[in-house]
Design a protein that fits this description.
Residues 287-308 have low confidence and may be disordered. α5 runs antiparallel to α9 (179-195), α8 packs across α9 (179-195) and α11 (205-213) crosses α12 (220-230). The termini are far apart. This protein has 15 helices and 7 strands. The chain is of the alpha+beta class. The longest helix has 17 residues, at 179-195. The protein has a single domain (2-296), classed as Endonuclease III, domain 1 (Orthogonal Bundle). β2 and β3 (36-42) form a beta hairpin. The strands form 2 sheets. The protein has a 5-stranded antiparallel sheet with strand order 1-5-4-3-2.
Length: 308
């Protein structure tokens, strides 16, 4: 079955595909060609594959019996409806970032494949190098992921939150080989499932952030990761300082955290996405984009509003 996904201009699917090719945590669960990407999500304890292809407005191909919600989830994944207007307008008075916008023009934020995936991964990445966190995720999906065959590849989809909430931390520990992380994953998944995706999407940013911070095992960085990299809520960062190395490489002597916070305001999350993506492409690193704080985590107990 084919549907059309209308994207908000400016939008570049070429930029989307380039990002996905380089995004280490999701590379194993996507199939990327010159003009398409295929992935899978779980609905009703089953993995459903989908393929996106096109240029600006995209075509999504799914199995004929696939739930209609898959098209929405695919659109959310690639940030199809993100409005870049405020970000690009602010960049006009910021020459270093304006040059980066020209390089990445039309790139919308590519999220994790749903709230369930970032909820699990945000624990895996705490104080953990990205390669190891990616291994934990692969082991987790080996044991609990729903599988679907696409050509000569098998894709694994993260179970939905209600299913994840039933998992025993002992079983998770056996899967990933890390009992402490397993116990934290189980607690965090249950906490996020109890809050619910609707609340995290529609509540004020402060209320959503504070609800996440009340869950044992979630600190400021993990809360921001869930809201930014899972749901596309770009309002805050725990600290602009966590992007200082990449920021100084871009801005040189013009690097000024306070000025950046004032200029980008509630678009600061999108600013960070562009800065990390640009830095990764310039240096040849994998695009981790806001999935690690320096040293692995942010240790403060509150998320500091940026740009307020």
């Amino acid at each position: 079955m084919k549907h059309t996904i209308i994207t908000r201009e400016p939008f570049s699917f070429e930029q989307t595909l380039t990002f996905i090719r380089r995004f280490a945590p999701c590379q194993a669960e996507t199939i990327v060609t010159e003009d398409s990407v295929t992935a899978a999500v779980s609905v009703g304890r089953r993995a459903w594959p989908f393929t996106l292809r096109g240029h600006r407005n995209l075509t999504i191909e799914t199995p004929d019996e696939a739930p209609p919600s898959i098209a929405r989830r695919a659109a959310d994944w690639i940030g199809a409806n993100d409005d870049l207007g405020a970000l690009y307008e602010a960049a006009e008075s910021d020459p270093p970032f304006r040059a980066l916008v020209r390089t990445l023009h039309g790139l919308h934020q590519v999220r994790f494949l749903g709230l369930e995936e970032i909820t699990v991964y945000c624990v895996m990445m705490q104080r953990t190098p990205i390669k190891m966190a990616t291994r934990y995720k692969s082991k987790f999906l080996d044991r609990f992921g729903h599988q679907v065959r696409v050509g000569d590849r098998t894709l694994r989809a993260m179970p939905e939150l209600p299913e994840l909430a039933t998992l025993d931390d002992g079983d998770i520990a056996k899967a990933i080989g890390h009992p402490a992380k397993a116990a934290r994953i189980a607690a965090v998944v249950r906490g996020v499932a109890e809050i619910g995706e609707d609340f995290l999407r529609t509540a004020t940013y402060a209320d959503a952030r504070d609800a996440l911070l009340a869950i044992p095992g979630i600190g400021p960085f993990s809360a921001t990761a869930i809201l930014l990299r899972g749901l596309g809520r770009v309002n805050e960062l725990p600290s602009i300082g966590m992007f200082a190395d990449d920021g100084r490489a871009l801005y040189g002597r013009a690097w000024n955290e306070q000025a950046i916070a004032r200029r980008y305001g509630d678009q600061i999350g999108y600013w960070s996405f562009y800065v990390k993506t640009g830095a990764a492409r310039l240096t040849g690193r994998s695009s981790i984009v806001g999935t690690h704080a320096p040293g692995g985590s942010v240790t403060s107990t509150r998320c500091v509003p940026v740009g307020s």
